[in-house]
Fold:
Amino acid sequence: MPLPAFPRCLAAVLLPAIAILLTACGEGPWNSPYPAGAASGRTLFASFSERPKHLDPARAYSSDEFRIIGQVYEPPLQYHYLQRPYALEPLTAVVLPTVRYLDRDLKVLPDDAPEAAIAYSEYAIRLKPGIRFQPHPAFVRDSEGAYRYHALTDEQLASIARLDDFGELATRELTADDYAHQVKRLAHPQLHSPIAELMKTYIVGFRELADVLKRDLDAKGPGTVLDLRDYALEGVQVVDAHHYRVRLHGKYPQFRFWLAMPFFAPMPWEAERFYSQPGLVAKNVTLDWYPVGTGAYQLIENNPNRRIVLGRNPYFHDEFYPTEGEPGDRESGLLVNAGNRLPFIDRVVLALEKETIPYWNKFLQGYYDSSGLASDNFDQAVQFSAQGNAELTREMQAQGISLETAVAASSYYMGFNLLDPVIGGLDERHCKLRQALSIALDYEEFITIFMNGRGIPAQGMVPPGIFGHLDGPRGINPYVYDWVGNAPRRKSIEAARQRLAEAGYPRGVDAVTGKPLVLYLDITARGPDDKSLLNWYRKQFDKLGIQLVLRATDYNQFQQKMANGNAQIFQWGWNADYPDPENFFFLLYGPNRKAGLGGENAANYQSERFDRLFERMRNMDDGPARLEVIQQLQEIVRHDAPWIFGYHPKSFALHHAWFRNLKPNLMANNELKYQLIEPAQRVARQREWNRPRVWPLLVGLILFFAALVPAWHGYRRRQRASAL
Amino acid sequence: MSAYLIRRLLYAVPLLLGVNILTFLLFFVVNTPDDMARMQLGQKRVGPEAILDWKHERGYDLPLLWNEGAEGTAQVTETIFYQKSVGLFLFRFGRSDQGRDIGADIRTRMWPSLAIATPSLVLGVTVNVSLALLVVLFRLTYLEFWGMALCVALMSVSSLFYIIGGQYLFGKLLQLVPISGYDGGRDAWRFLILPLTISVISGIGSGVRWYRTLFLDEVEKDYVRTARAKGLGELRVLFTHVLRNALIPILTGIVVLLPLLFTGSLLNESFFAIPGLGSYTIDAIQQQDFAIVRSMVYLGSTLYILGLLLTDISYTLVDPRVRLH
Structure:
């Protein structure tokens, strides 16, 4: 029997749609966000939530930027992937740089020369020969030796929208000039390198070069492109094609760590010239968008609104997986690939994923190889054992997911503005007030409630894993903790009240004026979700009878208040640039204070004794003497309490079973080349976990049509009925 | 009609100027050039000198609206407002504070927005109009009652719930389509089908109720009774005569939206990872990139004015009695 007209129409639309759905999805899982067959390649699938601002090694400074350019650019040194504590090793350098000290007349001094005698330190870096840049149009030359794409015509530009629109690519060997060129770029005023100010104080001639470049730019007007090869930098000397020296003012042992960061990666002048063409700039084809390096990977697609794709650099030099690690690495399978040529992964696809819900679900479906852990998903993934250890839930274990945790080289703290008349000052009375608050603010509780246990309470300036950090009773803050049994225990609130009374505020009341003590915490604007956190802060201060006034402000105003030294109490944090205690203690160095000087010492702490010791410590080599000085510095800041030492966050990362060779390395930026994917296992799991279920859809459609039938009959009856 | 169009276009000039000034004032009330510099230069190791240099390079060291230190016309032209706004009227968006060409970014990002917004609008209107006509067809039956009850229920649910629920149901539970993502070319439909379905379903509640009201206004009119008296079937009466006569209010709602399809949808694009223009303005506000904010607000205002103009023109097309003077 033929269908009536209306159901026939619906069927004509819906049946083909169902047919397409049933047939057009190919062999793989229907819900795969990747093209067919993509999962079977040696491709890493990961995501990013914020697009990186800069990919120029002179400008990039944040971890999401380093995550990309760390794979592309190669500074002379890198961190050993497996060894702990973190150790530097040569990357493009033949060996670790040799350092020699010079006096004012440039005469070489012995290695143990007193610091006062050292006018300059000179780092000599020898490069491995034969290293080549990734294939790039900037290197292409014609038969006469002229660069083919350095003076693009309008006609050529018309067919170019992206970097891969260039027909020819070429390479050339890495030389010491490329490293020298990059150091000059750090001084370029238009690049605004974040480390330019710091380097002005160390690299010989750097300040002068920056001044000359600025003068020339001002003289030549906007839009001028300067060729840095025409400018000399006294402190960087190219000895030959594979050997260069960097001369610094005084002694600065931390410079070796900077040599492992992308700031000091090589930059070929050809790339800078190529990207400076206005026609390319107008198409957003810039050096800040398309890096040019010698690393294991090259950027082959940069669409940060959708995805960033890295591909293997065909000219990557010989580099091999480490053959040694720390104890336990062999047992955990981290040395299975020892001695094998790097990299193991051919392609890295980073997809933009702004929202955590789809991101998490796609990880569980096997479409992302690894995942961080947001608070929303924490309970689904992790549970704590009776001993307080983080463990995966059964659901995660059943999927073969593994958990990696590591304490970050970061510190989060509540700072006091030492310029404030109530809470500041270094006299005993004010120190006791701050010590009392340090005891009262229970960061163990904070970590449990607000961080799902992802952190450890800080005992001082130096996080675990950094030279100078001590475990055990010697490592605790004796003004806040007691060593009880085998662990630190926060002093009782009675002890805090006692300190407060000694500070002149018994039960939170000023003993002189009789007025209650009111303190002000400046916080950046908070939404309704943060109400519980703010209440928690009030409760902590209330334990001492102190009224806490929360001054909510937007981040701009907060920054301004901090720059002017107007905040009283504030929260701040610091991620280490390199694994050295100097990179933490400098946050309290007097000449580095924020108010008036624009430094990073947000507490505006200034202690002559601390500054003197810091100046001594920063130039010492690691050893018992330096450790002793560090403990003295710890004692000073624990007593003076310019900060309430908050916590060191603990990173939690989840990985699928097919993702191997993973060891958290919070200092290295180029760890992708060591990691390995087993595609066959991934394909099998993805199929197992993603079997489409069509029947509920069919049932729904049948019910929908069934509901229409009586109405259709009613309509037909009404059509056939007579008007009277 | 030409005189009318010219007059409307001239009206747009002060309107756009006003929008521009308002955007400018609102932006700089919240963000100072120092804040913008800090945001662009990063949080670590940024000194006052670097902030001054950044402002100088981009012209943010000038006074906002009036330059006391200058003379003559320079008092107006040597200001941030003048320097940053004049190019806009010629659709020269210039470079963002991060150094990217804004026009190129807009041209790249508008296509994914269009890829999702255009079929959403077409399919949404088709489904809503069809369902509304069916409800009118089955009026005074249980289908109308339950249909309207369902519409009220659908209207009461937040669009965020539709997105999360849709991703959970079709992407995670039934595993029929990718939860999120985007691809161009032949593979694009796999990623568009879910946001499209969700967009259509989430609009059914309000859409069907609105169109039903329009059709019910028409359905008892004399011409409909005449059509029925001539023996036309109810389906033909509704889909041919009633629909055509109800087109003016329908067009009012649709044509004004057409130009804004370029600007995309923030929620859809964020949750489905569609690389469109939806989040461009929001991201720029968060990054305090004034160059992008002013460009996008200007573009949005222009498109809205264009939409209103197109609506007026469309009246003359669907109803020959309408004349624009």
